Amino acid sequence: MEKLVVLGGGESGIGAAILGKDKGFQVFLSDFSKIKPKFKAKLNSEEIEFEEDGHTLSRLEAVDIIVKSPGISDDLPLIQNLRKSGIKIISEIEFASWYTDANLIGITGSNGKTTVTNMVFHILKNAGLSVSMAGNVGFSFAEQVARKKVHNYVLELSSFQLDGIDSFQPHIAILTSITPDHLDRYHNNFQEYIESKFRITLNQTEDDYLIYNKDDEVITGWLKKNSVQAKLVPFTMATIIKDLSAFIKDNKINIKLNQNLFTMSVTDLAVKGDHNTRNAMAASTAARLLKIRKQTIRDSMESFHGVEHRLEQLGKINKVAFINDSKATNVNATFYALDSMNAPTVWIVGGVDKGNAYEDLLSLVNEKVKAIVCLGIDNQKIYEVFSNCVDTIIETHNMADAVSKAYELTEENDAVLLSPACASFDLFENYEDRGRQFKNAVQSLKK
């Protein structure tokens, strides 16, 4: 019996362990930290052996294959030593792909990937297809392959997940954007991060498609220097009329696939803003490549109202609007958020800095932000960059305090925006936990 070790006892690790057991591996799961009770209960019910609070090296070294959770860095001496000893180390995404013949739609990008993933899933579900959503959003891909067989998987893929692929091959890949992110994991080398994102097309053939943002100079720059086997399908806010493309003409989305043209008015989209128009173009293009009916796509885009924690409108208290953008874990995402603000804004920002260049936000902060509320352990960089253009910058150490202080700084017709531009792991479990705490704090203000 082949031995499989799963490193990391989170969502993806538990899923990989369950799939491994189903496929006849002798599975052992090891986590350096504590495993959450809900995941421990799952491991016990599946009778999967595990350890927590540290790794037993002899157990890790005596295996055929290791599935590593995306949160574990490749730079750790443990991982490097295991690799040197010849053990194959892959991601849960790669492992799950070995055991499904389903159609795979893979979506990555620094920003927009969650929205596009949800849009594609929404369209395919409305079209009556057998479909599930997994990867970096929703439930583990591996567990779904083990427990919930469908004909189509829509997968949100982070750079960390793509780092661990070997033969993974999506039929349709979507690349929404590439801006500096996670540079702390990529040795402060933007090029390494770019290469990581383009791994999504690594194993594609001429029968597959790469839908990409033609307005993103980083993406187009890479494509000029590197060859791709997949058929290239650009989307752009400009007007280009060529086969296999999506573009804007006369305020309409146009998707041209050879002789077939799909059009939809931008004003009919339920979600607004240029970034959402791009997202809708990318998702609708994927749907057209899958031969989804035009009217189904239009109806789906008219009924799609966005993703939780992404510019989520929470209503008003005494004419002050509250917006939850906890999903903004990098500067570029926060750029979109600030750019969309039409009222004087109290901005809640901060968390785990991933090598952020806050200077890119200066002009927008100058124009839109009346006060800054820092929410993080170390806010030095925020003070240094913005103290010259914002008079009021205050520090807080929990969400309830941040929200009440932000509200105190508002007047009628102002807005409070949570758009952290940072990861959440210093004070929160993840961005969802941060967003939920924000929503609960806003609800408490209403009482």
TrEMBL record:
Any coiled-coil regions, as ranges: none
Xref: SUPFAM superfamilies: MurCD N-terminal domain, MurD-like peptide ligases, catalytic domain, MurD-like peptide ligases, peptide-binding domain
Enzyme Commission no: 6.3.2.9
Main location group: cytoplasm
Catalyzed reactions: UDP-N-acetyl-alpha-D-muramoyl-L-alanine + D-glutamate + ATP = UDP-N-acetyl-alpha-D-muramoyl-L-alanyl-D-glutamate + ADP + phosphate + H(+)
Pathway: Cell wall biogenesis; peptidoglycan biosynthesis
Molecular function (Gene Ontology), one example: UDP-N-acetylmuramoylalanine-D-glutamate ligase activity
Cross-referenced InterPro entries: Mur-like_cat_sf, Mur_ligase_C, Mur_ligase_C_dom_sf, Mur_ligase_cen, MurD
Enzyme class name: ligase
Pfam families in alphabetical order: Mur_ligase_C, Mur_ligase_M, MurD-like_N
Gene3D superfamilies listed in its UniProt record: Mur ligase, C-terminal domain, Mur-like, catalytic domain, NAD(P)-binding Rossmann-like Domain
Binding site for ATP: 109-115
Domain Mur ligase C-terminal: residue ranges: 309-422
Subcellular location: Cytoplasm
Entry keyword set: ATP-binding, Cell cycle, Cell division, Cell shape, Cell wall biogenesis/degradation, Cytoplasm, Ligase, Nucleotide-binding, Peptidoglycan synthesis
Top-rank taxon: Bacteria
Residue span, Mur ligase central domain: 107-287
Primary role: Cell wall formation. Catalyzes the addition of glutamate to the nucleotide precursor UDP-N-acetylmuramoyl-L-alanine (UMA).
Family assignment from sequence similarity: Belongs to the MurCDEF family.
Protein name: UDP-N-acetylmuramoylalanine--D-glutamate ligase
The species this protein was found in: Psychroflexus salinarum
Source lineage: Bacteria, Pseudomonadati, Bacteroidota, Flavobacteriia, Flavobacteriales
